[in-house]
Design a protein that fits this description.
85% of the residues lie in helices and 0% in strands. The chain has 125 residues and is mostly helical.
C-alpha cells in the first residue's frame, strides 16, 4: 500500500472528477431548460405573427371592400368581412364591428370605421 503524496494526489483527482461531473450535470440541466424556454417563446411568437396576419388581412379586405367603394357592399363581401372579424376572436373588435354595421347614418358609420381601423392597427402592434 502506498502512502504520502500519491494518496493525496489520487484524492484530489477524485474530488476534482466528482466536481466536474456535478458541474456537467448542472450545466446540462440548465441547457435543456433554456432550450425549452426558447421553444415556448418561438411558439408564442408564431401565434402572435399568425394573429397579426389575420388582422392585416381583415384590415386590407375592409379597406378594399368598404372604403374603396362608393356604393353598397355586396352580400358576399359582407359575409366575408363578418367571418374574418369573428375569426379574430376579439370581443372589443366584434362589438365595434357591430356598431359599424348597425350605424344609421354616414357620420356614425365613418366614426365607427375610423375607430375599428384604429383598434385593428393597435392590435397589429
Amino acid at each position: 500500500m502506498q502512502t504520502g503524496i500519491l494518496d493525496k494526489t489520487r484524492l484530489m483527482a477524485n474530488i476534482l472528477m466528482i466536481l466536474l461531473v456535478g458541474l456537467n450535470i448542472f450545466f446540462s440541466i440548465q441547457y435543456t431548460e433554456n432550450i425549452k424556454a426558447q421553444d415556448n417563446e418561438s411558439e408564442k411568437q408564431i401565434q402572435e405573427d399568425g394573429e397579426r396576419l389575420k388582422v392585416s388581412r381583415f384590415l386590407k379586405l375592409f379597406i378594399d371592400k368598404v372604403l374603396s367603394t362608393n356604393g353598397t357592399i355586396s352580400f358576399d363581401d359582407r359575409v366575408s368581412l363578418e367571418s374574418d372579424i369573428r375569426r379574430l376572436e376579439d370581443p372589443a373588435l366584434l362589438e365595434q364591428w357591430e356598431k359599424f354595421v348597425n350605424s344609421t347614418d354616414s357620420e356614425v358609420a365613418q366614426e365607427s370605421a375610423v375607430k375599428l381601423m384604429s383598434m385593428l392597427v393597435g392590435k397589429m402592434l
